[in-house]
């Protein structure tokens, strides 16, 4: 059944047999309880409410109930009245793939994703989370979870995951990069001033020293001039081989440097490799694991961490990782470098 009461909020709905209603596991899942003249109008009310994923309607009493729920946290049950019916919003990955993490113009007035004021990109709406392909509802107490944002934070629930920081703080050799994009060969940057350089004392190892008072800066294709350009520092980054050996990366977090928010990374890529050290400058040795937001907001306080970003689709253990910044926060403003104080890699 397609409800077209409002074209932007159109949804595909599935209907149960007559004589059924929805039974939620938790009272908070009921978000609307009123009357409607028909099941079609009740369906339209659900369709125009982004939080609604299930509704039920009783044509004898005209009761229309909307639920922020699905069949993982509720059930369709048989009832005595043959006038009651349940409708469910049918979701698929195709509803999300073309919009998630894209500019807000892609999800204007869309029921499946919303414009985030933090990232200025399309994100999952409230009480849902990104699992790598779509936005399922966040979870209730004692339900198995696999990422930190999967639980109902409004109910003070959090997902406890036994992951750890993959780097050892001091024993990894971190290589600085410039003029490098995902899946391409690496160009090594060096200490100094000018094109393909990073500032003395602000080298790549600072990004993994667990100290936000140090930072890594990279000029990329620019000459370290004060004026710079809007693209200075883009396509720069690092690669390193973990001293602890092959590990599975599940999440990461960046911290801002001490100054100039326009130099913060906005969009980044992460790749993994199990090639030997002599092959790590070759683009063919890397597998793309993540391409998206850095987690740093446009209003991020200096020397603080952005939001944790997850890699829910990665299930491979890699010995080496490559981190690249492909877009800065500058929004067209000229700048001489990209800079950040920390890159935290979380995993097993």
Automatic annotation (TrEMBL):
One Pfam family of this chain: PAN_1
Report the residue ranges that make up the Apple domain in this protein. 17-104
Alphabetical list of InterPro entries matching this protein? Pan_app
Q: What is this protein called?
A: Apple domain-containing protein
Species of origin reads Rotaria magnacalcarata
